[in-house]
Design goal:
By secondary structure, this protein is an all-alpha fold. It has one domain. It is built from eight helices and no strands. α2 packs antiparallel against α8, α3 packs across α6 and α4 packs across α6. It is globular. This is VTT domain-containing protein. Keywords: Cell membrane, Membrane, Transmembrane, Transmembrane helix. It is found in: Cell membrane.
């Protein structure tokens, strides 16, 4: 989402709207492709410029992040592994769930914290934790820690940057683009590690069929 659309969206929905988006992206499958990291950072920046109240923005986003993950956990706990039998749709892709499960199996409880900073995995991991019947108090402890580091940390980073750098609005485009790149980099690296050879082979086949080569 272009930064100017994001700014317009945040100004339109306000603090409660931002919190609602955070809740949706944190644990509901329909929130898979919402702009969590850049949303929080830009909301923090706009708060530094007086468009939002940081005193409400930070706690509401934190609560929304924790509640969203808990909703995802409850959903996964209830439906169990039957979700893996669901057909792919425009919103749901089974590969995203499988990727989150592999991430969870590799990192255990700390995956709840780490996943906060990985788009798509962030949404699916609490669902996978619920499917695996992870003890809820343990899940909640990691959930609260991850929610604090992500929702509070990213929002306050945008707020302090907006407060400290003169005319920072002139640099908002590259800053938001940088945040987006940083947020998707781990996912891109993971995809390349898992499918790099296949992608390279596919590109080579396409090039070999290109006329004139």
């Amino acid at each position: 989402m272009p930064h100017f659309d994001l700014v317009t969206l945040i100004k339109a929905v306000g603090t409660l709207g931002v919190a609602a988006i955070v809740f949706t992206e944190s644990g509901l499958l329909i929130g898979l492709f919402l702009p969590g990291d850049s949303l929080l950072f830009t909301a923090g920046f706009l708060a530094s410029q007086g468009y939002l109240d940081i005193r409400w923005l930070v706690p509401l986003c934190f609560i929304a992040a924790v509640a969203g993950d808990s909703a995802g956990y409850a959903f996964g706990y209830r439906v169990g592994r039957s979700l893996f039998n669901r057909e792919d749709s425009r919103v749901f892709k089974r590969k995203h769930l499988e990727r989150a499960e592999a991430f969870f199996e590799k990192h255990g409880g700390k995956a709840i914290v780490l996943a906060r900073f990985l788009p798509i995995v962030r949404t699916c991991t609490p669902i996978v934790a619920g499917m695996g019947k992870m003890h809820y108090p343990r899940f909640l402890a990691f959930n609260v820690l991850g929610g604090f580091l992500w929702a509070v940390g990213v929002t306050m980073a945008g707020y302090f940057l907006g407060s400290m750098i003169p005319d920072v609005d002139r640099y908002l485009i590259p800053i938001v683009l940088f945040i987006i790149l940083v947020s998707i980099a781990p996912s891109a690296i993971h995809v390349w590690r898992e499918n790099g050879a296949e992608i390279t082979a596919h590109v080579r086949r396409r090039l070999a069929r290109t006329p004139g080569r």
